[in-house]
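Hypothesis: this fold can be encoded by more than one sequence.
Test: take the structure tokens below, design a sequence, compare later.
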């Protein structure tokens, strides 16, 4: 199972390249990568980046796949699946919980569905913390061709399995925390140090 980290965003809300922004001397992306490294079900990590930021990311020592679409998460997932089945996460999720990732990958392997996606009680999905089959790529391709880039809708209209978040240990929810703005960093510091 590949661990694919989406790292092609523009960081408009943050106002700059948030993934390279240093917290306690360490780039935000490195926190995410270190957590993902600790998931036992992940065999190999790759970064999925834009052509423009690929070079800067090569220094992290992982294969960098170029997202030639740049249409948001769907394009990143589509690109990642060119290598095989993948657990896909956003690069701005520094508090990933490795046991939770293993849990999702195990469920994915057991159910053999096109995707296994965490879901909140209100129906909200967490598509950037989910496992996808390489067969899901063909399903996405049709949508991309018709300009339909809504990933949640694609998941809902596919044969996916859902992981009910409220039934899991509460501390696993930390895994979904992501940095969008500079204010979010304030919420992060007490948790990281
Ligand atoms: N490969 C790839 N990664 C993306 C794309 N859009 C967003 N990402 C990544 O997905 C994660 C979540 O992205 P967002 O925070 O929603 O978007 P962002 O562009 O980084 O930030 P905003 O401009 O503030 O929306 C981040 O790690 C981004 O780097 C894309 O089109 N392709």
């Amino acid at each position: 199972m590949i661990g694919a980290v989406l790292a092609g965003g523009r960081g408009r809300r943050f106002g700059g390249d948030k993934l390279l922004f240093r917290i306690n001397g360490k780039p935000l992306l490195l926190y995410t990568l270190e957590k993902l490294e600790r998931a036992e079900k992940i065999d190999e990590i790759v970064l999925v980046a834009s052509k423009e930021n690929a070079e800067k990311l090569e220094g992290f020592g992982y294969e960098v796949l170029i997202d030639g679409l740049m249409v948001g998460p769907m394009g990143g997932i589509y690109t990642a699946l060119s290598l095989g089945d993948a657990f896909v996460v956003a690069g701005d999720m520094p508090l990933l919980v490795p046991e939770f990732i293993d849990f999702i990958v195990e469920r994915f392997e057991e159910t053999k569905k096109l995707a296994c996606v965490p879901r909140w009680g209100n129906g909200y999905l967490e598509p950037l913390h989910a496992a996808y089959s390489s067969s899901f790529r063909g399903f996405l391709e049709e949508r991309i061709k018709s300009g339909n880039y809504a990933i949640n809708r694609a998941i809902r209209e596919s044969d996916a399995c859902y992981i009910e978040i409220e039934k899991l240990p509460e501390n696993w929810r930390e895994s979904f925390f992501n940095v969008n703005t500079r204010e979010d960093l304030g919420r992060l510091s007490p948790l990281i140090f």
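Helices lie at 28-37, 54-58, 73-80, 98-111, 136-145, 151-156, 182-192. Residues 2-186 form a domain with the Spore Coat Polysaccharide Biosynthesis Protein SpsA; Chain A fold (CATH 3.90.550.10).
Hypothesis status: open.
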